[in-house]
Structures are given as structure tokens and as C-alpha cells.
């Protein structure tokens, strides 16, 4: 197993942990927001772990970016769907998603009411997970 194949499989497999944690946080946030539940320690920890998981995935992706043969900086890069996707499109979409999830977590921490905490997580994590899904679905076959 090469270093590249290890990180590729690690990055690919870890995405399921990210998706599950973000979706769980999202479902709990919507349930808390719509039913006006209190924002407890369980909510805080789940939201934090979801955010940590996307940041961990980013770190794995950064390593993969620098060792991947799919990332190329040549004049042909933008003409090829695969190299363009991995060199430019994928990481830009994912950075935006991670930034939104991080902003949502930060806004949730600063919010005064439980409803505002749940709402911040629900909105920002939803946009983040949609972008993550789009980024995954755009992977060239």
C-alpha cells in the first residue's frame, strides 16, 4: 500500500463519520429549534464533534492534495475534468462547507437563547452538508 492509496482510502472512509456526525447534529438542531427544547451539554458536544470531524477531514485532505497524482499544475489541468476537479473544484467547495460549519458552531456558542443556538447550527450545518454532498457527487467517474 502506497502513502497515496492509504490517505485516499482514509479520506474516503472518514467522510462517512463526517456525514453521520453532521447529520446527527443537524437533526438534533432542527428538533431543538422547532420544538423549543433546551440546548444541553449533549447538543454542545455533538456539534463540537461534528465540527472537529470536518476539520480532521480537511487535514487528511490537505495531505492528500500534496501527494495525489490527480492534483496537477500544468497548462492542461483546466482542460481535463478529473485534474480540474481535484486541483481546484473539490477543495474550494469543501473549504466553503467547513467554513460555514465553523461559523455555525461559533454563532451557536455566542447565542443567548437555546432557540438561537439550535437555529445557528441548523442553518449553517445544513448549508455545509449540502455543499459537502454536492462536492462528493461532482467527483468524476
Automatic annotation (TrEMBL):
It comes from the Bacteria. The chain crosses the membrane at residues 13-34, 46-71, 91-108, 120-139. Keywords: Membrane, Transmembrane, Transmembrane helix. This is Cytochrome B. It comes from Mucilaginibacter angelicae.
Amino acid at each position: 500500500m502506497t502513502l497515496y492509496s492509504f490517505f485516499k482510502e482514509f479520506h474516503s472512509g472518514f467522510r462517512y463519520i463526517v456525514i453521520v456526525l453532521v447529520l446527527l447534529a443537524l437533526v438534533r438542531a432542527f428538533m431543538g429549534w422547532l420544538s423549543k427544547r433546551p440546548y444541553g451539554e449533549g447538543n454542545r458536544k455533538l456539534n463540537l464533534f461534528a465540527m472537529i470531524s470536518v476539520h480532521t477531514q480537511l487535514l487528511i485532505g490537505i495531505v492528500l492534495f500534496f501527494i495525489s497524482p490527480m492534483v496537477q499544475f500544468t497548462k492542461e489541468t483546466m482542460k481535463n475534468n478529473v485534474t480540474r476537479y481535484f486541483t481546484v473544484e473539490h477543495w474550494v467547495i469543501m473549504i466553503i462547507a467547513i467554513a460555514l460549519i465553523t461559523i455555525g458552531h461559533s454563532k451557536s456558542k455566542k447565542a443567548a437563547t437555546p432557540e438561537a443556538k439550535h437555529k445557528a447550527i441548523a442553518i449553517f450545518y445544513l448549508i455545509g452538508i449540502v455543499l459537502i454532498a454536492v462536492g462528493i457527487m461532482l467527483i468524476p467517474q
